[in-house]
Design goal:
Bound molecules: ligand DP6
Number of strands: 16
Oligomer: single chain
Helix content: 25-40%
CATH class of the largest domain: Alpha Beta
Shape: globular
Number of helices: 10
Length: about 400
């Protein structure tokens, strides 16, 4: 049990979203500062489906060493260089405020107690580090009353996990790789808010994975060191795709968005296969999802859905709300409504859909069989907002750890 404190406890609580890249970050030009070899762009997903809730607190009554509890389990902060780097930067910013205004409480000198919970099962195999580090940085920045913008805070979150810098904002977010050796220009920025293109939906097909994949940090270093395709991807292909996807987003042009998204996912996984020894994140179930997306698009005669895969086998399928019956309706007919995850947020437009959007005898029947037997659940979600400050504290007024689960 964490000690209960008699000294004042200062608290701030925030939620933060998951983001799924459509132009992938893969490769570091500086592993210590966590600087990427190429820019990337993601869609922030709705916190109605997936979110991290984090309370940052500090008190003179806490034990001297900073503490972090994730999903009820105390973490060893001292062995996480990334967490230490984030906290050191945040403290330095607070210190600047205290130096400039001596009436401020000296929060930078107090031990921290940070408590964080995800609202989605860890077993879902979804990378939670992006939402986790974004929430940690936002919560401590709020606790310290830091004036830095989300863009400036993204520089700190980036040190926790590269993709985390994109979870500090909502909508459509670019992480500009930057050029400076110190990384000061490697920042995330909102390309378009959620309200610009709110119709974007995402269906996540969670694959029942039996073994752990190569962690992304190690995988990308192997790719940079050994893949012959990699340099072309980073130097020529991604810059052109960044420009193309930003135009597609500005014009709300789904077919263009879809093609760039699918090509970039395929290109990223091609550099994984081209690594030595090769790295495989997609499996037969992932490839069945790819086949079905292409089948649906070709039957409909236009791109109505687009897949993307991160460093694991789960498929994320983007589509527009108006095409819910065609896309999600077809997947629901294939997978059956008893599979976990269909009900819940964003189910409304699917509730009354009883037949598949496209004729099932026209899609690849082997892909249907492989997909049907290979998923553990689905998650229906959509483009969403950035972190939100809330009063749902995970640390009580006396410093005690609370649970919302
Ligand atoms: C495939 O952000 O997890 O999801 O910076 O080493 O923590 P680190 O890597 P991480 O890598 C994410 C890789 C990706 C693509 C993406 O999100 O852009």
């Amino acid at each position: 049990m964490a000690a209960v404190s008699e000294s004042p406890v200062f608290r701030a609580t925030t939620t933060a979203p998951v983001n799924i890249a459509v132009i992938k970050y893969w490769g570091k030009r500086d592993a210590t500062l966590n600087l990427p070899t190429n820019s990337s762009l993601s869609v922030t997903l709705s916190q109605r489906s997936l979110r991290t809730l984090t309370t940052a607190s500090c008190s003179a009554g806490y034990p001297a060493a900073d503490e972090l509890t994730l999903n009820g389990k105390p973490q060893d902060i001292q062995s996480s260089k990334r967490t230490l780097a984030c906290l050191a930067s945040l403290r330095a910013h607070r210190q600047e405020l205290e130096n400039a205004n001596s009436s401020l409480p000296k929060l930078s000198t107090l031990p921290l107690r940070i408590v964080s919970e995800n609202n989605f099962p860890t077993a879902a195999g979804l990378a939670s580090s992006a939402a986790g580090f974004a929430a940690l940085v936002r919560a401590v920045a709020d606790l310290y009353g830091l004036p830095q913008s989300p863009r400036e805070l993204s520089r700190i979150a980036r040190q926790g996990s590269g993709s985390a810098c994109r979870s500090l904002m909502g909508g459509y977010v670019a992480w500009r790789s930057g050029e400076l050796p110190d990384g000061s220009d490697s920042l995330a920025e909102e390309v378009a808010p959620q309200s610009h293109w709110p119709e974007m939906r995402a269906l996540i097909l969670v694959v029942s994975a039996e073994k752990k994949d190569v962690p992304s940090t190690t995988g990308m270093q192997t790719t940079v060191a050994t893949s012959e395709l990699f340099a072309t991807r980073a130097n020529a292909i991604v810059p052109a795709r960044m420009a193309a996807i930003e135009t597609a987003i500005q014009n709300r042009d789904f077919p263009a968005f879809a093609e760039v998204t699918m090509r970039d996912s395929n290109g990223f996984h091609a550099t994984c296969l081209d690594s030595w020894p090769p790295i495989f994140y997609m499996n037969d179930v992932s490839r069945a999802a790819v086949r079905l997306v292409h089948d649906i698009n070709s039957i409909v005669g236009r791109a109505v859905c687009a897949y993307t895969f991160d460093a694991g086998p789960n498929a994320v399928i983007y589509y527009l709300e108006k095409d819910s019956a065609l896309v999600a309706g077809t997947f629901k007919a294939i997978l059956g409504s008893s599979l976990e995850g269909w009900s819940g947020p964003f189910y409304e437009s699917l509730k009354d859909v009883s037949s598949p959007g496209v004729a099932l005898d026209q899609v690849d029947s082997r892909a249907v069989d492989v997909l049907k037997s290979g998923l553990s659940r689905v998650i229906l979600t959509a483009v969403g907002e950035g972190p939100v400050s809330v009063e749902d504290h995970l640390v009580g007024e006396k410093g005690e750890i609370l649970s919302r689960q």
